[in-house]
Amino acid sequence: MNKFFSKCASILLIVMVAALAGCSVEAESKDKNISTLETVLNETFTVPNKELRDILEDPNNYTMIGNDENTSSSSDLDSYLKKKYQESFTEEMYDKYTGTYALSYIAASPENSEMKIKDVQVAQKEKQQNIYDYTAIIDYKKDDGSPIEKYEVKGQVNFSESGKIVAFIIDEDSNLSKDIRNN
Asked: What number is the average pLDDT over the span 131-159?
């Protein structure tokens, strides 16, 4: 009888260790996804960004439409965007993100304005483990010396099994983009 209990205890211990290891891997994957999302949001909503501003103001980084010269060479802007975003996104989504969101808030911000993320709340969708809703609280200070205003940016991000972003959406930004343009 002792051998029976000993074998049962051993099997139970193995099952418990395997279950805990499975939970640990799932939690690690979730944490990596949330960390990736927070990194992307911080890169997208942090001003001043002197490195990016210098790149955007350098006429050597401009591309002339219809000019076949240097189209194969990478500009400083391309290098910057790849360094900041490429490892976080699938290839297709990287192109969409950099064309839609990556520069839309920073490039439109006046030189002496300030913007930074104060808090990010992320909620994983039930029954859809790679889809997350997020809310980011952003402080924005215009360059005219007015007080800091808070904005709530909400959206959704979908991750692949390998932890890369396959979809990124900003559903609302509490008029942050409009206020930046009007500044």
From this structure: 95
